[in-house]
Write a structure and sequence with these properties.
Bound molecules: nickel (II) ion
Strand order of the largest sheet: 1-2-3-4-5-6-7-8
Shape: globular
Number of helices: 9
Structural class: alpha/beta
Largest sheet: 8 strands, parallel
Order of helices and strands: EHEHEHEHEHEHEHEHH
Helix content: 40-55%
Strand content: 15-25%
């Protein structure tokens, strides 16, 4: 069994964990997992994230508004979320970004909420966790302008875009998608990615790696993602897991 898995992106507040959340988190922390960052998507899940951080010593939180929720978000919500950054175990602004695949919120509203949260992150000197789906060009333009520190999670861009992201000093989060059969772009990105800018993540309960696709994902599944990345990089799996845990702690100040 591997040890020291640090999952930089999960959603344990998700209702798919309602049945066995406590049992599962205890078994993860008693086993291969040494750290988790739970990401909020709106005010409600951000408050749930804070509650989880208070319960589990090795669980940290990111709070913020996901692009899907941008339209429903009020000024009051943003102010309440801003208060949560005072909590010691809230280590990032996230997840925030743009999603032009689903377009659940109008794009202008997504951009407005994304920018406002980037400004907050810079003000508070906090890293950001960025969601970019089919919005590479706008994401890159905004990141170049506001220059936050942080990670582009579940990176789905090309190797060329990865180079731009690296130039901005950002990290790249790689999850289960790299194990998928048709994963050409994520494999190319892993090939060119320097080890000191790589973060491991799940996006649990989603993005379950092969061989568990279709099942609920949890942080222990990072083992399969790490095996694939280590194979591409030609290195030892535990060594990769340790290096990525070190990267996560450096970025999030843990
Ligand atoms: Ni997510």
């Amino acid at each position: 069994m591997y040890r020291n898995i640090f999952d930089t992106h999960a959603h344990y507040d998700d209702r798919r964990f309602d049945e066995d959340r406590a049992e599962l988190l205890s078994s993860l922390f008693g086993g291969s997992v040494s750290g988790i960052i739970n990401c909020g998507c709106d005010l409600k899940s951000s408050l749930e994230t804070v509650a989880l951080t208070e319960k589990y010593p090795n669980l940290y939180g990111a709070v913020g508004v996901h692009p899907h929720e941008a339209e429903e978000t009020t000024q009051e919500d943003l102010e309440k979320i801003k208060e949560l950054y005072k909590k010691e175990k809230i280590v990032a602004v996230g997840e925030i970004g743009l999603d032009y695949f689903y377009d659940f919120s109008p794009r202008e509203k997504q951009i407005e909420i994304f920018r406002r949260q980037l400004v907050t992150a810079n003000e508070l000197n906090l890293p950001v966790i960025i969601h970019d789906r089919d919005a590479h060009e706008d994401t890159l333009t905004i990141l170049k302008e506001l220059k936050p520190k942080g990670v582009v999670h579940c990176f789905s861009g090309s190797a060329e875009m990865a180079r731009e992201i690296l130039k901005l000093g950002l990290y790249i989060g790689i999850g289960g998608a790299v194990t998928f059969k048709n994963a050409r772009k994520p494999v190319e990105v892993v090939e060119m990615l320097p080890l000191d800018r790589l973060l491991l993540e799940t996006d649990a309960p989603y993005m379950t790696p092969v061989p568990f696709r279709g099942k609920r994902c949890d942080s222990s599944h990072i083992a399969y993602t790490a095996e694939k990345i280590a194979e591409i990089k030609g290195m030892d799996v535990q060594e990769l897991i340790d290096k990525c845990a070190e990267n996560a702690k450096a970025l999030f100040g843990i």
